[in-house]
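User: quick one, fold this
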Amino acid sequence: MFLDLYTKYAIRQTWRKDIANIRQKMSQCEMVPLSKGQKNDIAKYYSNLLRKEVPVYWHKYFFSRNGNFSVKYVPTCFYHSDIIYKLNSFDLRHAYVDKGMYDVFFPDTLRPITYVKNVNGYYYDDSKPISRQEAIERCKNLDGAVSKPTHEGMWGSGVKVFSSHDGIVDDGITIESLMDSYGKNFIIQEKIQQHESLGLLNPTSLNTLRVLSYRQDNEIYILYAVIRIGRKGKSVDNETAGGINADVDLATGRIIDCAYGTPSEKKIFVTDVGTVLNGFHLPGFKKVIAEVKELHLRLPYFNIVGWDFGINREGEPVMIEWNRCPDLSQTAHGPAFGDMTEEIFRRIRLLKDTRFE
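Assistant:
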């Protein structure tokens, strides 16, 4: 009985946050009402698949943003309360998503060079233990570096791009102070020099590919890919930090049509620095897709994964991170699960919520 009550409480909390989130988004954009027929189609679709009703406000929001109606949009509340914790293991998430452990899970994958990392208060150069003083010495003179927390973060929070000279960071603080600001569980890596063509989208941010992959048996399906682009003068490309997202054609590696930013913005056809988005070719795209399909098989406890990749000057994919609970880019791409929607929905009907096992 207690477990049932706790489950219901957790789901109610998810839906409360979801309602607050969608109200905030809707207040910023020009909403287009759904017709009675569209609402009926949504209700019939979910009733047949899941034998339950879902709120239609997310369908309304995405339709208002991109002009494309579909019954297959995944309501965010439903994604967090019924999908992600059934497809992905909740109790094992921390160890796997810890960026300080990427050298263990992905030792042969091209990643940014690690200068120093802190795991549970212990310092390493990458895999070898070092003292705090050694860690400080290694970071005293860095020409372009990125520091960030290694535990699961929120939308790029805690990420700092910097250079250091004689132990002093650009903004005047010491390396010691920078490290102390994280406490423990952080990493300091090289700043990737991205491919020159990606720099045309925005030169001040590392513009990354977000790829959503899904595992069914031993087959990895690519659900979608979007390119995340920073705004002029900004160093972060996350949409929630002000960046924009554009859908990418999986067959050609080219941007489809336009990008989307904040809810108050219309479709974006040209970046802040003047680059036309429609048809823009992304170098190394096919290599990223191949890498995702190989790496996802190393994560047997996670059936749906969001991957972030940069492309270096040589056109090679550089893995930045993977996400066990990725936000869905349905404004830019459309229905997140596409042709796999019915398969995924039918599958979760047979699975238990891993938060309560």
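User: anything notable?
Assistant: The two ends are 14 Å apart (CA to CA).
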